Amino acid sequence: MINSQDGVIRNFQNLADLEFAASLIKQEGWHSETLLELQSFVEYDPRGCFLYEYGGDPIGICIATAYQQAGFIGQLIVAKRFRGQGNGRALMKTTIQYLQQKQLRAIFLDGVQKAIPMYEELGFQSISRSLRFFGQIPAEESSDVQPMSEKDLQEVINLDRHTFGDDRSFFLRKRWQNYPDLALVRKQDFQIAGYLFGRVGIGGWVSAGPWVDLNEKSSN
Question: Domain 145-219 falls in which CATH fold?
Fold first, then answer.
């Protein structure tokens, strides 16, 4: 627990904290992040899930994910009426400090345009643009693409360590367990040459990713 100004930054403690986080995400229109996804973060590392309380009421969240080599910061949201008061910065500093204690080689994050100045002031540098695409795309069948089996999953995890450069096997297993119908592999000469995981978000939106094709040398 960390005191910041007149507020307290602590870890998620119960279902009410998760539901508050989910409500903030819904207000922001982030269709891909659901209560089920938030539960996965807490299961992976409850000490990396931060909630900001002000006057006893929750006002913001931020989640740190530490892989073996690098860390990632996400879900930084402050309730609208508490923005512009340094609360997001306080959450970020707490999250950064937590990841720095793990002596990772780097910390990454995705940021909206408005937040870039704050991230740069905290020491982050822009490395690429992260675009989001949406639409209704008709499905096409392919003889090379098939559902991911449990046996395939372990091979995918091994490949992902190479393509992603770190171990995110916990989240890949969770994605396969939670959405088995949206986990696919592409095989070439009886070997996995690509894989894709999907998840169902708020309002039935389906998000694709991680998505890797070894021939195209692309990954997400």
Answer: Aminopeptidase (3.40.630)
